[in-house]
Each structure stands twice: as C-alpha cells, then as structure tokens.
Specification:
By secondary structure, this protein is mostly helical. The protein contains 17 helices and no strands. Helix 6 packs across helix 8. About 1% of the residues have low confidence.
Length: 429
C-alpha cells in the first residue's frame, strides 16, 4: 500500500466508526472511491503516462505558486509578529540556563539560536535590507539537525512557556526546511504522481501558514494548529514521509475547518488538475498535427491520381510522392496515438472527479442532484480501475460493458473536472 492509500485508509477507518444514516451502498461507494483515487495516483503510469510528460505542462503553474511563498522574501511591510518572536526566542535561551547541565540543553540552545538567526533574516528581508534565498545545502543540513533536537526537547520539557518557545523556534525552522525542500523538489522534478501530490500538498499547506505568519500580530496569534500545519508540510516533502493515523485525522479536520475540504479532495484535486492540463495540451498538439496530416494527405491523393490517371509526374513530384507514401501512414499512427493518450487522460480525469464528489458530498446532496445511480456505478467503476492498476490490465482489454461503464461515468463528470481545474488555476493566479 502506497503513501496516499495508507493515509486514505486511516480516514476511511475513522469514518466507518461513526454511525450514519446512510445505507451500506453509500459507505461502500465512498470506501471504494477513496481507495480508487489512491491507486490512480500511485499507479498513474499504468493508467495514463509517466509524470515527466505532465510535469512539463504543470511546472509553470507550480513555479508561479512557489513565487507566492514570500514570508522570507523581500516585502515592503514588516511581519508584525517577528519582533515579539525574537524576544520570545531570546527569553527561551535564557530559560535554558536552568538546564545547562542537561545533555539536551546545549543542542536546544544551538537550535533556538539558529531559529533566532532565521527570524532575523526574515526581519531584514521584510525591511528590504536583503533578499532572502532558500537555505544552502549546508544550512539545510543544519536546519534538519536542529529540527530533530527541537522535537526531542519538546517531549521532555515540562514548562509550558518554554515548550511553546521551542515550538515557535520549530515553526520558523520547519517553514524554512519545507520552503527549501519544496524549491529543490520543483527544480529536480517529481519522481512520480504520488511525489507530485506531496509536493502540491506541501505548497498549499505552506501557503496557509504563510498567510497566518503575515497576519499574526503577536506570537499568541500562532496557534498549535498553525505549528502543526507547518510541521506536516516539512514532513510531507521528505523523500520518505511519515504521517501517522492521528496526524492524518487531525489534518483532515483542520483542512475541513480552514480550507473547506477534507484531506482526500485537498490532495487529489491536484491530480485532476494536472491531468486536465495535460489533456488540454494533447488536444492542441492533435489539432496542430492534424492540420499538417490533412495537408499531406490531400497532396498524397492529388499526386497519386496524377500518377495513376494522368501519368504526368515530374521527377521531383515522383520523389515527393514516395516520401508521402512512406510518411503519411506514420503521421496517421502518431495522430491516433495522441488522440488515444488524450482520451485516456480525459477518461481517468472524469472518473477521479466522480470519486472526489462522492467523498465531498453527503447522500442528501447526491439525492438532491438526482444522481443516486452514481453511488452504485461509482463503486463498480472504482473496483474496475483498482483491478486495472493492481493487475496491470490495459483499458482496451476490459470487456465492452466495463469500458462503456467507465466511459459513461467519466463523461458525466467531464465538465465538472474542467471547472475544478479552472478554480485551482484561478486561485494560483
């Protein structure tokens, strides 16, 4: 089981313990939908294509969002809480003198001093004294070492004020770690769609944290939930992330409160957007290739007629005809391949949109939209796609009835997947 499937199972298990008025078919459909979108992300290369093709299309959009994370970049106005944060961190250093004989005291002292350095860097950048850059490779290693020390110390300190000061140091350090790891991940390109979704989840969580840090007037305006969100962001971007059940459920609740979406839609709507953008690009590519193909096909037909009926081809035309007879079938095959890729992506984009709507909506909403039939169909389509992923079954090897069911289900949600993508792009603008 992959990372997102495991996270989805945590949420599904928790939901199954809550008594609902919904019937068994509804619960089954939601469970299958949750597992299906997980498989679609983690086995995307079997469903659609390698992430590198899609990445070239979505990279400008992702880089634009990265440019918006400017808490530590040059701003015209100071971030209000920074002065208070520096005082609190300095106070934390003073409190540590009581633990100077403790093995962990020196490490925590160094970690808080490091956080003060980062906060001072932020402060200078907001005053226009310097333009902040991502951490260097050496600084990133230092930050991650201090991250481990601070988290260990938080578990040992009994003093609530001192613990909060260490959490404040952690949130500054974690934000810079996540920001730097995120920038490095974007530069390197994601390894697969599961990695891409972690990258985008990190961006969105940092965006939420960024807005909080900008708006905070005092350190008291930065809640334990804010600290948690930054911590999760710095964890998600790791090469081997860990997100336990309790953390996943807490993140699910916080996203519902602050973002208006639960964790699964929050993550997997990015898959829909990336595939929809790729499908649009393939459509444009097909249009361009088809114009060239049509022109060559007409010329091939004219020259063939001239040869067979009029027998009046020049030497140059004879050579051109030979080239066209060879190249036109190849161009037709390439055109068909692009069309097939576009149909595949649109099919799975529409299906994923349907699964997310099953996860986002209540039975009552589905009933009001007169879409009760989608509950049963959603479960069947999800099982088909999971089977395709698990057993590496190409779509064209499914029987006609299964293919028709998946296609019909995807077509129902095609417009809504496009609308979701437009909203995500608009939010990033």
């Amino acid at each position: 089981m992959g990372f997102w499937s495991r996270v989805g199972s945590f949420i599904g298990e928790a939901a199954s313990t809550v008594k609902r008025a919904a019937n068994a078919a509804w619960e089954t459909a939601k469970d299958v939908a949750s597992r299906a979108v997980g498989w679609m992300a983690e086995e995307a290369e079997k469903f659609v294509e390698d992430v590198k093709h899609t990445w070239q299309i979505v990279k400008p959009y992702v880089e634009h969002i990265r440019a918006g994370l400017r808490t530590a970049a040059a701003l015209t106005a100071e971030i209000p809480f920074l002065s208070a944060a520096l005082l609190a961190l300095d106070k934390g250093l003073g409190a540590l003198t009581a633990f100077e004989n403790s093995p962990i005291a020196k490490k925590v002292n160094e970690a808080i001093a490091w956080a003060i350095k980062l906060a001072q860097r932020w402060k200078k950048s907001t005053q226009g004294e310097q333009e902040s850059e991502r951490l260097s490779a050496e600084e990133l290693r230092t930050a991650k070492r201090h991250q481990d020390d601070l988290r260990a110390a938080e578990r040992e300190v009994d003093s609530e004020p001192l613990r909060h000061q260490m959490e404040l140091a952690s949130v500054i350090n974690d934000f810079e770690i996540a920001r730097t790891d995120l920038a490095n991940a974007i530069d390197a390109a994601p390894a697969n769609f599961e990695h891409y979704l972690r990258l985008r989840a990190t961006q969105k969580l940092l965006g939420m944290a960024d807005r909080t840090l900008r708006a905070a007037q005092t350190i008291d305006d930065i809640s334990v939930d804010d600290i948690f969100l930054v911590r999760i962001a710095s964890d998600l971007i790791k090469s081997n992330p860990e997100l336990g059940k309790e953390a996943a459920l807490r993140l699910d609740r916080l996203l519902q409160q602050r973002y208006g979406k639960k964790l699964t839609p929050f993550v997997f709507e990015e898959l829909i957007a990336s595939w929809a953008m790729r499908a649009e690009q393939l459509g444009k590519r097909w249009d361009e290739a088809n114009r060239s193909f049509s022109k060559d096909k007409i010329l091939l037909k004219r020259l063939t007629i001239a040869r067979d009926i009029q027998d009046e081809l020049s030497e140059e035309e004879t050579l051109e005809l030979a080239n066209l007879e060879k190249n036109v079938p190849l161009l037709k095959q390439q055109l068909d391949d692009v069309a097939r890729q576009q149909r595949d992506i649109e099919r799975y984009t529409g299906a994923a949109e349907g699964f997310l709507q099953l996860l986002e909506k209540t039975p009552e909403q589905i009933e009001q939209e007169d879409r009760e039939y989608l509950i049963e169909d959603g479960a069947l389509v999800g099982k088909i796609l999971i089977d395709c992923a698990q057993n590496n079954v190409p779509f064209n090897e499914l029987d006609n009835e299964q293919q028709a069911l998946v296609n019909d289900y995807a077509n129902i949600f095609k417009r809504e997947s496009q609308a979701r993508t437009e909203l995500l792009l608009k939010a990033a603008a």
